[in-house]
C-alpha cells in the first residue's frame, strides 16, 4: 500500500508536468462507468461522472500537493475553485505520459481508469490495479470533513505537540501504541510499514498500552516516526506489493527495513515475531522492543 513516502514520490513525478496546465477533458474507463451505473462508486466518489467532468474540464491545475497519504490538486477556472482529493488505495498511481502505451509497467498500463487530457498534449493518468483508490472533486476541504481531521504534516513544527496531546485524551490510553500512531488524526501519513519500523527504532513493543509510555519514550517514538518517513522518502519508498513510481521505477526502502516482513532481527539475531494489533500485522523483535 502506498504510504507517505510513496505518495510523496508520486507527487514529485507528476508535479513538474501537470502544474499550470489546463485540463481539456476527462475520460473514464469502462470499469469506472460500470461501477457508477451499478452504484459501486468505482474510484470517482460522491459525484456523477458528468458532474465530475463539469467541475474538472477547462480548469487549470494551479497546485499539486501531498497531504498525509492523499494527493491534492487545486483547480481554478476564472473565479471558480475546485479541489481534487485522491487516495491511491492499495495500488493506485498517477502518471504523466504522451500516450497510455508509454506507461512502463504493464499492469498500470492495462488498468488505467481516469485520463485527464492536458493542454500541453500530455495525459495525466490515474491507474489502479485493485480499484480501491478514490478521487473526489470538492469545492473546498470543508466539503470532505474527514480530511480536516488529519494531523499536521509530520515534518511541520506543530506535529509533535499535536501528537503528544493525544496521550491526554481517553481515545487511546488503554489501547496499543501501535494503533494510536496509525491513526492519521494523531500522526499524519504513518502507515503500517513505517509504524512497525519506528517502534523498532524506538525500542518500544507495539502492543504496549499508550498510557504506559513515559515522556521520554513518547518523544523518542515521534523522533523515529519522522526518521523512518525521511528514510522512506530518501530511498524512494518501498516496492512492496505492486507499487511503482510515476516513472515506473521502484523504491529501495525495503532494503532498509528492520522488522516489517523480516525474518531475523539485524541487531540481536532473534526471530522477528508477528502479532495482529487492531487488524494490522505488527512485526517486532521481542528482545529489542520492550
Ligand atoms: Zn532484536
Automatic annotation (TrEMBL):
On whether Zinc-finger is a keyword of this UniProt record, the answer is yes
User: Which EC numbers does the record give?
Assistant: 3.2.2.23, 4.2.99.18
Residue spans making up a coiled coil are none
Reaction catalysed? 2'-deoxyribonucleotide-(2'-deoxyribose 5'-phosphate)-2'-deoxyribonucleotide-DNA = a 3'-end 2'-deoxyribonucleotide-(2,3-dehydro-2,3-deoxyribose 5'-phosphate)-DNA + a 5'-end 5'-phospho-2'-deoxyribonucleoside-DNA + H(+); Hydrolysis of DNA containing ring-opened 7-methylguanine residues, releasing 2,6-diamino-4-hydroxy-5-(N-methyl)formamidopyrimidine
Q: Taking every annotated instance into account, which residue ranges of this chain make up the domain FPG-type?
A: 258-290
- Mention one GO molecular function: zinc ion binding
Q: Which residues form the Formamidopyrimidine-DNA glycosylase catalytic domain?
A: 2-133
Q: What does the sequence similarity comment in the record state about its family?
A: Belongs to the FPG family.
Subunit-structure text: Monomer.
| Protein name, UniProt field | Formamidopyrimidine-DNA glycosylase
Organism in which the protein naturally occurs = Staphylococcus shinii
What is the organism lineage in this UniProt record?
Answer: Bacteria, Bacillati, Bacillota, Bacilli, Bacillales
Amino acid at each position: 500500500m502506498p504510504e507517505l513516502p510513496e505518495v510523496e514520490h508520486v507527487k514529485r513525478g507528476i508535479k513538474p508536468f501537470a502544474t499550470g496546465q489546463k485540463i481539456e477533458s476527462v475520460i473514464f474507463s469502462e470499469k469506472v462507468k460500470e461501477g457508477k451505473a451499478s452504484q459501486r462508486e468505482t474510484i470517482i466518489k460522491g459525484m456523477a461522472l458528468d458532474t465530475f467532468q463539469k467541475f474538472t474540464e477547462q480548469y487549470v491545475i494551479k497546485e499539486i500537493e501531498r497531504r498525509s497519504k492523499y494527493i491534492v490538486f487545486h483547480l481554478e477556472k476564472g473565479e471558480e475553485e475546485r479541489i481534487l482529493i485522491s487516495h491511491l488505495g492499495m495500488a493506485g498511481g498517477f502518471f504523466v505520459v504522451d500516450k497510455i502505451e508509454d506507461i512502463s509497467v504493464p499492469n498500470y498500463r492495462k488498468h488505467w481508469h481516469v485520463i485527464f487530457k492536458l493542454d500541453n498534449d500530455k495525459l495525466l493518468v490515474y491507474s489502479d490495479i485493485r480499484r480501491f483508490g478514490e478521487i473526489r472533486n470538492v469545492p473546498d476541504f470543508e466539503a470532505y470533513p474527514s480530511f480536516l481531521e488529519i494531523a499536521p504534516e509530520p515534518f511541520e513544527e506543530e506535529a509533535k505537540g499535536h501528537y503528544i496531546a493525544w496521550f491526554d485524551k481517553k481515545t487511546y490510553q488503554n489501547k496499543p501504541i501501535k494503533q494510536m500512531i496509525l491513526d492519521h488524526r494523531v500522526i499524519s501519513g504513518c502507515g503500517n510499514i513505517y509504524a512497525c519500523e519506528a517502534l523498532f527504532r524506538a525500542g518500544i513493543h507495539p502492543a504496549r498500552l499508550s498510557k504506559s509510555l513515559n515522556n521520554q519514550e513518547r518523544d523518542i517514538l515521534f523522533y523515529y516516526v519522522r526518521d523512518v518517513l525521511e528514510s522512506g522518502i530518501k530511498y524512494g519508498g518501498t516496492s512492496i506489493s505492486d507499487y511503482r513510481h510515476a516513472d515506473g521505477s521502484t523504491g529501495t526502502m525495503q532494503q532498509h527495513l528492520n522488522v516489517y516482513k523480516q525474518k531475523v532481527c539485524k541487531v540481536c539475531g532473534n526471530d522477528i515475531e508477528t502479532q495482529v494489533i487492531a487488524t494490522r500485522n505488527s512485526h517486532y523483535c521481542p528482545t529489542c522492543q520492550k
